[in-house]
Amino acid sequence: MSSVLFVGFGGTDPDLDGLLSKVAAFDGRRRRHWMVVPEGKFPSLKAKRLLHDKGVRVIEYPVDSRHSRLTEFLGILATPQAGSGHKMKSRRYTRFRVRL
């Protein structure tokens, strides 16, 4: 299975657990999935459990009224550089934090 990027889900979304269970069942929890959430909106303990139980890493972005950092993050992922296997410029990711 390919990697999955979850966007637009919150920690209390009723559909989230079902989707996460299906993804984990298909790929054996290989820890290659991600969820992008606004900073401070997803409990740290739940983020740790997602990584351990479902293989999903939580990435937090600084939030503003337009979610401009999320748009920037998705734009970075969409560049040919992101999928080419080349090392991405680290300065582009300094505003995003991966929860472990």
Given the helix and strand composition, which structural class is it?
Answer: alpha/beta
Oligomer: single chain
Ends distance: 22 Å
Along the chain, the helix and strand elements come as: EHEHEHHE
The structural domain count equals 1
- Identify the strand order in the major beta sheet: 1-2-3-4
Largest sheet: 4 strands, mixed
**Global geometry:** globular
**How many strands appear in the DSSP assignment?**
4
Q: What's the gyration radius in Å?
A: 14 Å
Number of alpha- plus pi-helical segments:
4
Rounded mean pLDDT is 78
Relative strand content? 15-25%
Fraction of helical residues: 25-40%
Outline the low-pLDDT stretches. Answer: 88-93
In short:
With 100 residues, the protein is an alpha/beta fold.
Structure commentary:
It is a single chain. This protein is of the alpha/beta class. It is 38% helix and 18% strand. The protein has helices spanning 16-27, 44-54, 68-78, 80-83; strands at residues 5-7, 33-38, 56-61, 97-99. It has a 4-stranded mixed beta sheet. The longest helix has 12 residues, at 16-27.
SSE inventory with pairings:
Layout: E1 5-7, H1 16-27, E2 33-38, H2 44-54, E3 56-61, H3 68-78, H4 80-83, E4 97-99
